[in-house]
Amino acid sequence: MKAKSLLLTFLPRTIVLCGVLTGPQFVLAQQGPKSDSSATVARPRKPTSANAPAAEPDQPKIPSKFGKKDGDLPADAPTFRSDVLTVTVDSAVVDNKGHFIPGLKKEYFRVLEDGVPQKVSSFSLGEAPMTIALIVEFSNRFQQYYSAGWFQTLQATYGFVQTLKPEDFLAVIAYDLRTEILSDFTTDRSQTSEALARLRIAGFSESNLYDAVVDTAERMQDIEGRKAIVLISSGMDTFSKLTFDKARRRIQDAGVPIYTVGLLQTQREMADARGAMGSIARMDFLQADNQMRTFAAETGGQSFFPRFDAEFPAIFRSIAEALRTNYVLTYNPANQARDGKVRRIKVELVNPENNEAVRINDEKGKPVKYKIVAKQAYTAPHEVE
Question: Are residues 132 and 109 in the same domain?
Fold first, then answer.
């Protein structure tokens, strides 16, 4: 497993606090599980002790009646490929309140790739530690010191951290005009507290949402295990280098689930009711909400738009429940072409006896409305020359 590290480059930030100008604030990278880079499983290490047993002499090779060339093999000899494409889909089945629905069997799940049913080769249900990148919008646009947006942002970030378990890895990233890693992936909550303590006075009024999310997702794509991005933001983007369409494509390619929490919902409704919000601002906020929903839906995450701060605990419990407990489906695509194209995925619950959608009832026998949260696409690899 690769070390969990986001901190490839560091951009210093200048902070003004109580009229005192401080210099660049440096944050050391907190690595994930340490590994000995000099060790390898391919070559065993040489004995370091003088009393170590001597290596066994080479054994004679076992002769084979077949040569190394393909022409030397008989026509009925089996052949094997080691580059078979395998796709893993983490699927969460949740009710209309976001609660995970357990107890579903493998035969109920059907995976469609580009409309073609696939054979599920393995199926499991498990709970594992999470690797989370907490991305927080912290700009002078909506998080001015002691404003409603400032209080709500801090309440959401601190509240989410309190729901984590000791073995969960967390990185904290803030963005305004640029993205800054406040703390790298770590299980040390003191490091996380120091990172959150820096969210006090915003610097710039720009919000580069697309750049921040894409940069974080691409840094996380090679991390193994259960991973996700929790985005706490208004959903507005003002200055990103990437466009929305390009950001969508690159986020899909990274394959990291994104859980979005929209800010300032009540403030927006109150301003709209008073007539203080113009039509352009109203359209901008609606577009921002749609962008947050799109990022979540296309990566297998979920989107939340709380109107009251009291909703945050339930939201964070839903996120933790969805991340920790998933149905893990693995299949070998019928289309094994390595063409670099996007393949669309759809996960369904189907009764194999009648080929109809599975009905789920609660304890009282009433039908439960549910939805399947899973990634909607992946990009096939390119053929290696």
Answer: no
